[in-house]
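step 4 of 6: structure.
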Amino acid sequence: MELTLQSPLQQVPGIGTIREPLLRKLKLVTIGDLLRHRPRRHEDRRHPTPISQAVKGQSMLVRGTLTAHGVNRFKQGRKSVYEFVLDDGTGRLHCRYWNLPYLEDHFAVGMDVFAYGAISGGKPVTMDHPEYEVVTADDDAPLHLNRIVPVHRLTEGLSGRWLRALIWRLLESVRIAPDPLERMACDHFSTSLPTQFRRLHFPDSMEHVESARRFFALSEFLHLQRGFADRRQAFRARAAGHSCSGDNRLIRPLLRNLGFALTEAQKRVLREIRSDLGHRYPMRRLLHGDVGAGKTVVAACAALMSIESGYSVALMAPTEILAEQHFRRLAGWFASLGIRVELLTGKLKESTGPGTADVPTMTVGTHALVHDGYQPDDLGLVIIDEQHRFGVVQRDKLVRKGWYPHLLVMTATPIPRTLGLAAYGDLEISVLDEIPARRGRVRTFLRTSDDTSRIWSFVAGQLAAGRQAYVVFPRIDEDDSPAGLKSVIEEHDRLSGLLKPHSIGLLHGRMPSADCRQVMDSFCQNKIQALVATTVIEVGLDVPNATVMVIGNAGQYGLSQLHQLRGRIGRGTGDSYCILVEDSRKTDAVERLKVLMRSNDGFEIAEEDMRLRGVGDFLGTRQSGMPKFRFADLLQDADLLQLARRLVEANPPQPKPLANRPR
Ligand code: ADP
Ligand code: MG
């Protein structure tokens, strides 16, 4: 019988009923699974390190002859250490194993042994619990000696030698045919699947190991992207949307009255959106744009396309403050166009424009939109601002209020571009990669609380010059944990005295929304010159005259969050100043904050944040749906992820034949 990658391991001669369950424990069921079992590491057995060159703390591979061994027992025989000594002609290595006395039976004086581990002591040269392999003069010897050998993850009862020999044998005998996606990867790398399997397990050089890893990483990404593409195709076949591309009659006057010209990036993204809205299947698009890139006006134009076509629009924002700001801005823009604009938050309901129920309406709100009160019957487009603040569930609930409405989700920099391709593969992606001109520079400084008086006199100077400032602290009041962090209520009191005669406002998430609103209004109108706030101001706010931001206990926040916060300034024409205050001298904290001093590019910052914190930590629980990869690394292989997306787009899935369709 011919064996293929799909054949169950059971059918492989020599595996038997004892080893098959052990392989299953490693989740290896088919031959393909086994050949894709990635070695943990490779050992270059052509060049073991001479024992005389041992360096404490470093890992190394040694080959030597066993010259002595034995077990020492202590604590009345309850504890033991087994030790053997290897001699390679340059020195002696002591290998020690605690509480594994039975090891003694595996070894004998005169054996030829490889040991791999970290040197734990220098006199005598010692390794604790090294990995070992005894060289035996069997037929397989050439597999295990004088070459780079794979070291695989094992389980109790399986030996590395046995598994290595099995893989070798399968590589010789199995018919290896790539699946269509692996074929794409083969074409791209001009290689063959058997070659890559061989390089993965029995490479001629360490470069082979890496090239094989990248080959299999690409095929993982191809599978991921193909999965997304299939889901998109199924969705499009199933879902029939409204044609909402509009006729420009409302957009044209809006753009005339805006007071600025759209950037090329904004125009490009609007073309992408218009083309989506014209399809008979609903748009599912993510708009990625750094803070200040001008996403709101793009959202407004997209909304007008839908309204021109006779369909209502819902815009959901994560905070009441932001929802209100959007409401104000859109009401202002849309007033002369005769469009009804509504605000719907947990506590507020307000509207402007014509009151009739049968005209398309622009509704702006918080997650209150998800609840029962909001029941549009002509929903054409759903827009989610700062979408990383919402769960997919909330997003879908809002979408389900309509009959397959179009969906535009917008986000600043919560995740790097490459992760976006892996996490948001169900969405088409538009990028606003241009910040509108005319902006002043934002300069960022790192200070400690020793500089406090200088910081406040600088702020006072800016306020006296007619500018406004945000001052951010992590806690609301002294009762909040964790202790040791500054609270806005206390600091507000202090600064109100310190910054006299300027008027200082307070804003945090536990204030009644009417109060929040009043404070925000006063700040927008420059009746309040400085705003002491928690991170409620993090997203979306747009007050161009505010050019100073002081962030206390800055080390508390993630880099991307700090970048978002900092995005509140630098919106006017003058220069802006962001002052990060952090007392911790820990180098990693300082290192992190320095990234912000170097860069103003949200994508770069997010990537740096991810590099410093690790992909898992960076994503936290929010993106736990992120796929796991065996070979691919989202940081290192960003290029491959993009390549996979391109390759899959260039090779669309074949439509399934409609076989046996009843007549
Ligand atoms: P974000 O992408 O962070 O949501 P906003 O939509 O709040 O950014 O826009 C930031 C500021 O830039 C707003 O004051 C907006 O009116 C202004 N703006 C947007 N587009 C342009 C443009 N093309 N030229 C000049 N200013 C613009
Ligand atoms: Mg915004």
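step 5 of 6: annotate
 - Residues 442-619 form a domain with the Rossmann fold fold (CATH 3.40.50.300).
 - The first strand starts at residue 41 and ends at 44.
step 6 of 6: archive
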